[in-house]
Amino acid sequence: MMTNRERLLAILDGKSPDRIPWIPRMEIWYLAQRLAGTLPPEYEDMRLGEIRADLRMGNPARTGRVFTTRIRGVDAIVRRDGLRTTTEYITPYGTVSQTAQRTEELDAVGIQPLVVDKMLKGPGDYDAVMHIFENMQWYPCYEEYEAYDRDVGDDGLPMVGIGDVPFHHYLGDLSGYETAYLDLFDNPGQVENLLDTISQVYRERMWPVVAESPARLLLHGAHFASQTTPAPYYDRYITPYVREFTDYVHKYGKSVAQHADNDSLEILDQLQESGYDMQECLVTSPMVPLSLRTAREHWGDSMIIWGGLPSVILEESTPEEEFEEYMEDLFRAISPGDAFILGIADNAMPTSMISRMRRVSEMVEEYGNYPTAN
């Protein structure tokens, strides 16, 4: 019988595993239950890894890293005011800032604060932000990764996050979608100059560190959506960068994933044509219009899907019979089982039922042996 690490490596190599790997993310569920003191009695004294082992799940292993970063020549000042944290970056071209907002509700379930005030607030901020990127440096920390990899062991294979791609980082993190698209319409030259700068800095300083690292699976890009990265903009601003990046790291034996926790229905072709090997945490209906069957029929085995189990299916609001029917159809939809890793999209939520997660484990053992029935 294969280990989960062997299953993942087989899938990345285009081979068939002995059975479907079942490797969900449970961090949000676990933190919420632990902070609220509501872990099931049998798990009260267990760490998350021990709970996963009891439920016969693999380890998603998403916290390893292969580099650290530093910004030279820029002073950062952090100010805290209650639940708000503002960071100012002082550059020769002016000061830019961003503010993160915590809430008691987010804290209660262990979710990171939201950035409510972005760094790019207007045309006058672009030179300062460009200066920040021009002075970013990447430093390998391969020994740290190797220690993490040994700790994960046979339970999984580390997926190393290396940040978002330039255009989507600009949209979601630096500016905010509405402001970003308005700036792109009003000042395209300024925006594209910043995007070119970020891309070139990544290309020269980050790519080689990543490519020469011991990591096999990289996560670069997150939350691309039909609505916020529609096909024409994806084609123009995302595909050229991602295609060049994936071509580059493929030569070093790497595989590249995108965190697909958004509606991808209208950009299925773009995700494939840009060179991604995997769509991780792929969210599907009933949470978004895209069904697992549609994604599978569209991509075939040419795109690895990690996901397929929308978190709402694990909620009490979904009737038990509907849950069972969904799971049975899932195994038919992914038949015979190549290029597929079963996971929860995006995460087991605080209200996910542990009984259903346990039932999924049973069904994987019952229906998940390769080849699965259609």
Structural summary, described in words:
By secondary structure, the protein is an alpha/beta fold. The protein contains 14 helices and 12 strands. The chain has helices spanning 4-12, 27-36, 48-54, 104-108, 126-134, 142-152, 166-175, 177-186, 188-211, 231-250, 268-273, 292-299, 320-333, 354-367, and strands at 67-71, 75-81, 84-91, 94-101, 114-117, 136-140, 159-161, 217-222, 255-259, 278-282, 304-310, 340-345. The radius of gyration is 21 Å and the shape is globular. The mean pLDDT is 95. The chain has a 6-stranded parallel beta sheet. Strands 2-3-4-5 form a 4-stranded antiparallel beta sheet. The two termini are 23 Å apart. Helices cover 42% and strands 18% of the residues. Helix 5 (126-134) packs parallel to helix 9 (188-211), helix 9 runs parallel beside helix 10 (231-250) and helix 13 (320-333) runs parallel beside helix 14. The chain folds into 2 domains: 4-69 and 139-367, TIM Barrel, CATH 3.20.20.210; 73-134.
Brief synopsis:
The protein has helices at residues 4-12, 27-36, 48-54, 104-108, 126-134, 142-152, 166-175, 177-186, 188-211, 231-250, 268-273, 292-299, 320-333, 354-367; strands at 67-71, 75-81, 84-91, 94-101, 114-117, 136-140, 159-161, 217-222, 255-259, 278-282, 304-310, 340-345. The chain is of the alpha/beta class and 374 residues long.
Write the layout of secondary structure elements.
Blueprint: H1 4-12, H2 27-36, H3 48-54, E1 67-71, E2 75-81, E3 84-91, E4 94-101, H4 104-108, E5 114-117, H5 126-134, E6 136-140, H6 142-152, E7 159-161, H7 166-175, H8 177-186, H9 188-211, E8 217-222, H10 231-250, E9 255-259, H11 268-273, E10 278-282, H12 292-299, E11 304-310, H13 320-333, E12 340-345, H14 354-367
Parallel strand pairs: 7-8, 8-9, 9-10, 10-11, 11-12
Antiparallel strand pairs: 1-6, 2-3, 3-4, 4-5
